Amino acid sequence: MDALERELVVWAQHAASGQVSTPAVDGLAELSAAVVDCGLCPRLVAWREQVADEKRAAYRGEEYWGRPVPGFGDPAARLVVVGLAPGAHGANRTGRMFTGDRSGDWLFRSLHHAGFAALATSIDRSDGQAMNDAWITAPVRCAPPDNKPTTLERDNCAGWFDAELDLLDHAAVYVCLGGYGYVALWQHLQRRGEVLPRPRPRFEHGGEVQLSNGRLLIMSYHPSQQNTFTGRLTAPMLDAVFLRARAAIELRR
After folding, report:
1. pLDDT, tens digit, for every residue of 213-227?
2. Phi, psi for residue 127 in degrees, rounded to 5
3. In 106-178, which ranges are E strands?
4. Is the Cα dihedral 214, 220, 224, 229 positive or negative?
């Protein structure tokens, strides 16, 4: 049984326990399989495969995933974490969001600290990591050159993003890692008819937007090396975001 099959078994267990509907689990499983087979963006297909073929020296002996990366987590999640896109030698190598690179090290440490992740690290898809009440996704599913997807590439992925968020119908808090994820989620909410403040609030770390039905959007700097190496984002700052998310979820019980 490979890692994806194990995840599907866990999702089925959620459905059997009544935590989430069987149609939602089936929908997420079907969506994940369809995402992995997507080839809509020629530039991204070429880049992700080139990176997987050439590899970084440190991972020369590994087989890279080199395909679109599906979302990862608990299908009954009340927390949804929105990033940007898979890292070239992180998720594009391991096949799991924020897994196998420094950004993931920061993210999973904070998620674990707030009780959303079983482990404080996320190394590969067979490491035993499991999410508790959280789901991790991104508006773009393929690693882009220089971490900069084009507008067309983002729009090509919007259907996957919309379908996934629609299936995560327990979501109470969205944490957007970076301005790109914030804008992408905002556009999703607009497409779904959400009544939103105008103009859109400026992105700022720790910023919040109250959504309908008591849901909450929280902004955070992305845990990229550009932010963590320079001190723009510190561990206590990231911890504070997910502890705030935890508190907001507990208030809805």
Report:
1. 999 999 999 999 999
2. -85, 0
3. 134-137, 173-177
4. negative
Question: Cα 205 from chain centroid?
Answer: 18
Going by C-beta distance under 8 Å and a sequence separation of 6 or more, which residues neighbour residue 243?
113, 114
Cis link prior to 199 (omega < 30° from 0)?
A: yes
- Identify the helix (H) or strand (E) that includes residue 6: helix 3-17
Domains of the chain: 3-251 (3.40.470.10)
- Name the strands in the sheet holding 134-137, side by side, starting at the edge strand that comes first in the sequence: 72-73, 134-137, 79-82, 173-177, 216-220, 208-210
pLDDT band at 11 (very low <50, low <70, confident <90, very high): very low
Amino acid at position 158, single letter: A
Structure tokens at 154: 């983002």
37-74 burial string, b = 16+ CB within 10 Å, else e? ebebbeebbebbeebbeebeeeeeeeebbbbbbbbbbb
Q: Check residue 170 and report its DSSP letter.
A: T
Distance CA 107, CA 121 (A): 9
Q: How many CB atoms lie within 10 A of CB 89?
A: 19
**Using one digit for the tens of pLDDT, what is the confidence trace for 36-79?**
999 999 999 999 999 999 999 999 999 999 999 999 999 999 99
